[in-house]
Design a protein that fits this description.
Layout lengths: L2 H13 L9 E4 L8 E5 L4 E6 L12 H10 L10 E5 L9 E5 L16 H18 L18 H16 L5 H12 L9 E3 L8 E3 L6 E4 L6 E3 L2 H11 L15 H4 L4 H12 L7 H25 L5 H8 L2 H13 L1
Length: 338
């Protein structure tokens, strides 16, 4: 963010009734491949700004207004979110829509194996992660004013069509496994079961902030993909992540001795979630995990496309992530047959 943009943001914030105590400064976070995110500070104040990236964007992508809306609605629920301060829909201010929220102090855990942490602390954090996920799916969207946050019915059919369209729009070459996965998902859509909840869309441990000295979740972040839909999409997204290699790139748990570390197995985490929501069991869970791999592959393809077009928040990282698209598609096919 250059000096002119920063001055424009400061002027706009004051116009929204946000009193600034000193000169506003900005430091870009090296996270978030979709919407550039900045830490705003004055002498003794701290905020976070999320904006759409520059350049030509895919339709319906980078919906910072949806992020703002859903987090504002969740302010007084059991779902921890930062306090929303103001949304700017006027592109003339800095060239793109953005919003400002409070800065939440907390630990960001980017490795689900939590190296160096005590056995009991790992278990407590995973239990809290499960609690928060169930809490998201237990809120009443209508009571929160989110009844129109997503269209009714046919969630997976709509999501498959949406992400296939996004994938095709950002395609940079043929990926046979992705084509096969799209075909399998279309032929194996689950029947409607009446569940329609708030869905985060990218629920994982590195999109959460935890208390500095305990397992309490202080905030769930990155709500860009949130909508009303089927809750198993979020649950399967967690399980999908854990199938990836451990380390800074995969951020998964593949091959990790979970019981020795105090981490739940996939089955234990799903069972704990079902108990929290009063669900007996989940049939055909392989479809939901396969769909999670497909959707993430489509997202990563978009990240790669933005890097090639010069619009990525972190171009080198974006290209690296984009190279994983074929592998995600292959893992989706494996989940489909499991």
């Amino acid at each position: 963010m250059d000096e002119r943009e920063l001055e424009a943001v400061a002027t706009w914030m004051r116009g929204q009734g946000i009193a600034l105590e000193g000169v506003l400064q900005a430091q870009k976070f090296d996270v978030g491949q979709s919407n550039p995110t900045y830490h705003l500070t004055t002498d003794n104040q701290s905020f976070v700004l999320r904006r759409k990236p520059p350049g030509v964007l895919l339709k319906s992508a980078h919906a910072v207004d949806r992020e703002f809306c859903v987090q504002q609605a969740l302010a007084d629920t059991d779902v921890p979110v930062p306090r929303m301060l103001a949304l700017c829909e006027d592109d003339s201010v800095i060239g793109a829509m953005f919003y400002v929220m409070e800065h939440v102090e907390g630990r960001n855990i980017d490795d689900p194996s939590m190296p160096g942490m005590a056995f009991s602390n790992r278990a407590a954090i995973m239990t809290e992660m499960n609690r928060v996920l169930a809490a998201i799916h237990s809120v009443d969207p209508d009571a929160l004013g989110l009844g129109n946050f997503g269209p009714p019915g046919n969630y997976y059919e709509r999501q498959l069509a949406r992400w296939t369209k996004q994938y095709r729009a950002s395609e940079t070459g043929e990926v046979a496994a992705m084509d096969a996965l799209i075909g399998w998902l279309g032929a194996n859509l689950p029947p409607e079961d009446g569940q329609r909840t708030l869905v985060h869309g990218d629920f994982r441990i590195d999109n959460m902030l935890f208390a500095p000295d305990g397992p309490e979740c202080r905030a769930v972040l990155d709500w860009e993909l949130s909508t009303l839909g089927h809750p198993y999409a979020d649950l399967a997204g967690v399980i999908m992540q854990w199938q990836l290699p451990p380390g800074p790139e995969g951020r998964g748990l593949a091959g990790v001795n979970r019981s020795a570390l105090g981490l739940p197995s996939d089955t234990e985490f799903v069972a704990q979630y079902c108990r929290r929501r009063g669900i007996d069991h989940i049939s055909g869970f392989g479809f939901y995990v396969a769909f999670a791999f497909f959707r993430m592959a489509a997202i990563l393809q978009g990240v790669k496309r933005r890097a090639l077009d010069g619009n990525a928040s972190n171009p080198d990282k974006a290209l690296r992530l984009g190279s994983f698209v074929p592998r995600f598609a292959e893992l989706g096919l494996e989940a489909a047959q499991a």
